[in-house]
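Encode chain A's predicted structure.
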Amino acid sequence: MKTTQSMTSIRFGVLLSMLSLIAIVVLFELGIRLEWTTLMLIVEIPLLVILLISFILSFMRTGLWKFTHRPLKDLDEREIALTSKSLRQAYAWFAIIVLCILLVFAVFNIAVSIVLAVSLILFAHLIPGAVIAMTEKTLRF
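Encoded structure for chain A:
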């Protein structure tokens, strides 16, 4: 991790990544259901840019992405424990969130769009790093 970034800025970047991902999906689903407007299209593009920039700054530059995707054989005992803890918490949250989304879509008989499916896959990859960023005092890997 680069030491020039404070934990506050990393957490802000992670939160911004998650919120922009949610906003992209919500806006896309509204656009499909209500009919796209020019304003929706104008807002969607900056949201994609914000997601990309915040992802690069908070996941790539800090090493969170690489750390959460590293094979276990390349980790020491402390890193294995940290990864295990973050994966357990992340996938518990992921399961609850996805099941709630799917329940709402089923109750209202809404088809799952490709954007929602891809966003959930990205979310599954981001959430372990987000758990580490939000729970650890410093990033040491």
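The chain has one domain: 7-135.
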